[in-house]
Design a protein that fits this description.
The complex is a heterodimer.
Chain A: H1 3-7, H2 11-39, H3 51-54, H4 56-89, H5 95-103, H6 110-121, H7 126-135, H8 145-169, H9 173-181, H10 186-215, H11 218-223, H12 230-239, H13 244-267
Chain B: H1 10-35, H2 50-90, H3 94-108, H4 111-122, H5 126-129, H6 132-155, H7 158-169, H8 174-185, H9 187-203, H10 206-211, H11 219-229, H12 232-264
Helix pairs in contact in B: 1-12, 2-6, 2-9, 2-11, 2-12, 3-6, 6-9, 7-8, 9-12, 11-12
The chains are: A mainly alpha, B mainly alpha.
Chain lengths: 275, 266
């Protein structure tokens, strides 16, 4: 070790040396494999890249996924904002406990959430039992669109609640009091005071909720839903039909959609990765 | 149900109660289902630990592996990520900016795509493909940006620049400055990043399901397997094992992180 010569190092080289291990790891285990993935569909002809647009069943699956993700995102934003604002504004015993319980599912793998929906709406589920004793009919909703929607809602809500609770605590109360004292109704306050103030939060949170829903695989996998979403389509192409080029092409399409939404959100000033 | 200071929000209260029920009821339901003799008969059939025992027999190994994997993932991302965060915090060149953008791509791109890419590139290396290292690499690629971002934003504080400069003028070399000043100063951020990485790794399924082999199974992979092939009581008992083993670890780490924040944070 020669500290004097190390000190004489050009700071630029030092920074490069600091970044080098991470860069090498990233290049070897993400960049290179992804380049491989990007070029793979070309081996089956250029048309493979557009399979998601030209094949009606893939297009349907993609449209399903986008529609489901948009619906879940909108519902989550409304519900999450309501709960977040309520929890930030009202002090009651057990509030912190409730907040930590509500955000706990952030650490659950998607498969658990699929299982929860089966417990609620599956063939032996809670709703089926209640329906049986009330109307003599076993109601199941776990394996259709409603089950998928509720499951996606379940894993989306904790993130929205946590984000809105934090944002609402930082909100300016005076503005709201001023609006109230001037006679604004509850709805007006929500529209003219809350919405503008929470707009950046909504944009960032909405983008990440949408991206998470688009790529969610475990939940749909557990539910084995009749409503096919694109991650399941990719999985089937890859595992059941060993159609690697097509799986790669669909992955590219999926990656492109989620990345574009996150990119657009960041363009408008939101930073989704830093929670 | 709840006494509130501002009793003016009946709509928000109703939504909060409903959402809380929706979020908490399934957790209670699954805990109950893992402990009863017969799920369809309900609590009347009596409580038992039999299902937990069966889970431990069939899937016990996955718990240890998941924890070890998450720990390795934290160590790996700290070793790679903290120096990288320093480089990104101190250089505002265009290249650094592009590199940071690239590094966060695995978060934006669905895990399934990353997993496919890894299998296509390294699937032929059988020894690697069949080891836990293959899953570890996938988890690290996915979690590295969280570590780098958290630590790098902490390193950008102005007072740190001044401290580093002062140490340099007093003759401290880079290693002394890095280990003696920078790392202790951003230690809370490193802990927060580690907590995030650990949580993500323990619950990761999208990547892991594609990367795993019958001999390399993690807890979420085992869960999916039990949901597909076992009876509902065993699935529930396994979910209970997830809660019982993982949550105390997460809470412990959270407590530690808060403690650090109080001691080191300003």
């Amino acid at each position: 070790m020669k500290p004097s010569s190390a000190n004489a190092w050009n700071p630029r080289w030092r920074l490069l040396a600091c970044a080098a291990p991470a860069a090498a790891f990233f290049a070897a285990f993400w960049l290179l494999p992804v380049v491989r993935l990007l070029t793979l569909p070309a081996t089956k002809g250029w048309g493979t890249y557009f399979a998601v647009l030209t094949d009606s069943s893939y297009l349907q699956s993609m449209a399903n996924t986008v529609a489901l993700s948009v619906g879940v995102t909108l519902a989550t934003l409304v519900l999450g904002a309501a709960v977040g604002i309520y929890l930030a504004r009202h002090a009651f015993t057990g509030r912190r406990m409730l907040l930590s319980l509500l955000t706990l599912p952030l650490s659950f793998p998607g498969v658990i959430i699929g299982f929860f929906v089966i417990l609620l709406g599956g063939r032996q589920g809670l709703v089926a039992d209640i329906g049986d004793s009330l109307f003599g009919e076993r109601i199941t909703f776990a394996y259709g669109l409603l089950g998928l929607f509720l499951a996606y809602l379940y894993f989306s809500l904790p993130r929205a609640i946590a984000t809105y609770a934090a944002a609402a605590e930082a909100m300016n109360v005076q503005l709201e009091e001023a609006a109230r004292s001037l006679g604004a109704s509850r709805l007006r306050v929500a529209r003219d005071v809350w919405m503008p103030e929470l707009a950046p939060t909504t944009l960032a949170c909405g983008a990440i909720l949408f991206a998470t829903s688009m790529g969610a695989f475990g939940t749909a996998f557990t539910l084995a839903s009749k409503f096919e979403v694109i991650p399941i389509t990719i999985y089937n192409e890859f595992t059941n039909y060993a159609n690697f080029a097509l799986a790669a092409s669909l992955s590219i399409a999926l990656g492109l959609v989620t990345w574009l939404v996150l990119f657009a959100a960041r363009r408008f000033g939101a930073n989704p990765v830093a929670r | 149900m709840r006494k509130n200071v501002q009793p003016k929000a009946p709509f928000l209260l109703a939504v909060t109660v409903l959402v809380s029920l929706f979020m908490i009821a399934p957790m209670l339901l699954s805990v109950m289902a893992g402990l009863v003799n017969n799920y369809s008969a309900g609590l009347k059939s009596g409580l038992t630990l039999r299902w937990l025992g069966e889970v431990w027999e069939n899937y016990g190994g996955t718990v240890g592996w998941s924890l070890a994997l998450a720990l390795a993932c934290v160590i790996g991302t700290v070793l790679l990520g903290v120096p990288c965060a320093y480089a990104l915090a101190r250089s505002r060149t265009r290249a650094a900016h592009i590199f940071e953008e690239l590094l966060t791509l695995p978060v934006a791109v669905p895990g399934l795509a990353t997993a496919l890419a890894l299998i296509l590139a390294y699937g032929q290396l059988t020894a690697f493909r069949q080891s836990f290292a293959f899953i570890l690499v996938g988890h690290m690629v996915f979690t590295l940006p969280f570590m780098v971002r958290t630590v790098s934003s902490a390193l950008q504080r102005d007072d740190l620049l001044a401290l580093e400069e002062a140490a340099r003028s007093l003759g401290a070399n880079f290693r002394q400055r890095f280990m003696g000043i920078l790392v202790p100063a951003v230690f809370p951020a490193i802990v927060a990043g580690s907590l995030m990485v650990f949580t993500l790794s323990v619950g990761e399924f999208n990547l892991t399901w594609m990367l795993h082999t019958p001999l390399t199974r993690t807890l979420p992979v085992g869960l999916a397997d039990s949901y597909a092939s076992m009876r509902i009581e065993i699935g529930s008992a396994y979910t209970l094992v997830f809660f019982a083993v993982i949550l105390p670890v997460l809470w412990g780490l959270q407590y530690l992180a808060n403690l650090m924040q109080k001691r080191h944070g300003t």
